[in-house]
Amino acid sequence: MRRRFLRGRPMFADRLATLALIVLFGYLIARACRRWPDRERRWVGRALAFTLVAYATVTYIKMGLAGELSVTYALPLELCHWVMIACVVALLRPSRYASEVAYYWGLAGTSQAAITPDISRGFPSWEFVLFFWSHGGVLLAVVFIIAGQGFRPGPGSMWRAFAWLNAYALAVGTIDHIFGWNYGYLCAKPYHPSLLDYMGPWPWYLLSLEAVAIVSFSLLYLPWRLRRRNRS
Predict the structure, then answer these.
(1) Residue 1: is its pLDDT beyond 80?
(2) Is residue 129 within 8 Å of 11, Cβ to Cβ?
(3) Among 81, 106, 147, 167, which residue has the least CB neighbours within 10 Å?
(4) pTM of this structure
(5) What share of the chain is helix, strand, coil (3-state, %, to 5)?
(6) Between the CA of residue 105 and those of 33, 180, 217, what are the distances in Å?
(7) pLDDT tens, 79-127?
(8) Residue 183: which residues within 8 A CB-CB, separation 6 or more?
(9) What does the DSSP assignment read for 80-108?
């Protein structure tokens, strides 16, 4: 009876509850980073890095057991994959460049994906759990990078992140074109409704995404710019 009830619930409620849980964990992490000493904070960062690595491990084991490993969609070439890699690097060995990619890509891209997920089933399906495991882990990692490691985007950081984004699009887009894949949705829009539906047909929505990235990165940098201006 309970299983039937879970399957019948609107998926929107599952998404909303999960996003609320991510926000709550983010608040708790930020609060802990303000109160705990460095040693305990480092363990929080390692736990978050382990969470992201565990997600990748579980995902590939599950796909392998189901015989679903395919170069068409199983290679780590999605934008979110590279955000996770940047997060793990920044969490374990703090790096300005990795932190910048995690911050700008993570908040601008992963947050949008979490709000409009490209999934067809709700909780407790594996599709739902794995999606929010990865995206929620990235968002929480960004919270820790800021609150626990003291990362502050500096001048030029948004343009470096934008340059890395275009390098990713050029490299993966070329691979997609050669092999007929669609990593990063660079050759076609997602099957399920998303914000890309409002940005025109291919390839024009790619140019729209460039503009969205610049605006998003600028907004993410603005609070830090104003903060430095007020201090000066």
Answers:
(1) no
(2) no
(3) 167
(4) 0.85
(5) 75, 0, 25
(6) 23, 25, 8
(7) 888 999 999 999 999 899 999 999 999 999 877 778 777 677 777 788 8
(8) 73, 75, 77, 78, 172, 175, 176
(9) HHHHHHHHHHHHHS--HHHHHHHHHHIII
> Could you tell me which residue, 195 or 135, shows the higher pLDDT?
135
Q: What is the pLDDT of residues 69-80, one digit of tens each?
A: 888 888 999 888
Per DSSP, 148 falls in state T
φ, ψ (nearest 5 deg) of residue 115: -75, -35
Other beta carbons within 10 Å of 116 = 14
Tokens of 100: 């910048």
Q: Which residues contact 203 (CB under 8 A, 6 or more apart)?
A: none
Q: Which residues does 136 contact at the CB level (< 8 Å), separation at least 6?
A: 18, 21, 22, 25, 114
Q: Which pLDDT score, from 0 to 100, does residue 4 have?
A: 38
> Which residues, other chains included, contact 91 with Cβ-Cβ below 8 Å and sequence gap of 6+?
45, 46, 48, 49, 141, 144, 145
Peptide bond preceding 153 in cis form (omega within 30 of 0): no
90: tokens are 């920044």
Q: In terms of pLDDT, which residue wins out, 209 or 2?
A: 209
User: How many alpha carbons fall within 13 Å on the CB side of residue 103?
Assistant: 29
